[in-house]
Design goal:
This protein is of the alpha/beta class. It is built from 14 helices and 11 strands. Helix 2 packs parallel to helix 3.
Length: about 325
């Protein structure tokens, strides 16, 4: 059996990314119920809100699901406590040192995956005992690696130095991309942007429409001196770009970012002044569809491409 399917107890080696303001219990439950692994995105939730989402997800599906925890956010102690108390069995950590919480989670019998963007942190994650690694390339939306390594460059490098199950992330939204990821060494994939536009995503309808309307070149990584993040270009992005070109300091950029900017854009639908985190693959997303439909098409297309490649002439 495929190592990712076996590790998480799922039907297909497809994980829905835990995206801020998009990955609530409805999306996680829908993806898990359709045979993948749904993740609740704790990065946009207060501890009490996360607790409610976990409980509602358990009511909505009897399939495995997990929680994504960006380690750079506050209240991590409370979040981890709730995860343990609510009996969550799978945690994906990101944006921080995997050594900080992996031991704690493993001692509680929780399966742990960690998101990395370079070889240094891949080795560190494996050394501290994670069960799987997510290799996320520069195409991905949201927080990004400073090395700017693309997914298809990153994957074979990481596969060569780690022995544990490996997920590919960044720029994946089709059966072809899943197959290509596996050829390069992945055991499965983590998909974000495609599910951000799903019917069950908690993103604002205006943001979903902005994803669908996105064209090539409409996203770019900015705020590199603070935390690199890939954004859909809008009025706020242009403010950041102008500030960076003018040599703004880290403190000045942090002040410009302010509080609640991502919520304003992705959850409340302010397409001008909000922060709109999405991946490059947005330009290939053309409609809002239920998560189950997305899952079915991904796997059907993967099998079709696998069959086609098996009969390639060369």
């Amino acid at each position: 059996m495929n190592s990712i399917r076996k590790l998480f107890g799922i039907d297909y080696p497809i994980v829905q990314a835990g995206m801020v303001w998009c990955s609530g219990w409805r999306l996680a439950a829908a993806v898990s119920h359709a045979g993948g692994l749904g993740l609740i995105g704790a990065g946009s939730m207060y501890p009490s809100v996360l607790q409610e989402h976990i409980r509602r997800c358990k009511q909505a599906t009897d399939k495995p699901f997990g929680v994504n925890v960006p380690l750079l956010y506050p209240d991590i102690d409370q979040i981890m406590k709730i995860i343990v108390e609510e009996g969550v069995k799978i945690v994906f950590t990101s944006a921080g040192n995997p050594a900080t919480w992996t031991g704690f989670l493993k001692n509680e019998g929780i399966t742990v995956a960690h998101v990395i963007a370079n070889k240094k942190f891949a080795r560190k994650a494996e050394d501290c005992g994670v069960d799987a690694i997510v290799a996320e390339g520069f195409e991905a939306g949201g927080h990004n690696g400073r090395e700017e390594t693309t997914t298809f460059c990153l994957l074979p490098m990481i596969r060569e130095i780690v022995s544990i199950p490996l997920l590919a992330a960044g720029g994946i939204a089709s059966g072809k991309a899943i197959l290509a990821s596996m050829v390069l060494g992945a055991d499965g994939v983590q998909i974000g942007s495609l599910f951000a536009a799903a019917t069950e995503s908690s993103a604002h309808p205006k943001f979903k429409q902005a994803i669908i309307d996105a064209d090539e070149g409409d996203t770019k990584v900015s705020l590199k001196s603070v935390v690199p993040v890939r954004l859909l270009k809008n009025a706020f992005y242009k403010q950041v770009e102008q500030a960076e070109l003018a040599g703004a300091s880290r403190d000045e950029l942090t002040q410009l970012l302010g509080r609640g900017r991502a919520k304003r854009g992705m959850f409340e639908g302010d397409l001008d002044e909000g922060e709109l985190e999405i991946g490059q693959i947005a330009s290939d997303i053309t409609e809002v569809k239920p998560a189950a439909t997305i899952m079915q098409k991904l796997w059907t297309d993967f099998l079709k491409e696998k069959e086609r490649v098996a009969h390639l002439e060369y």
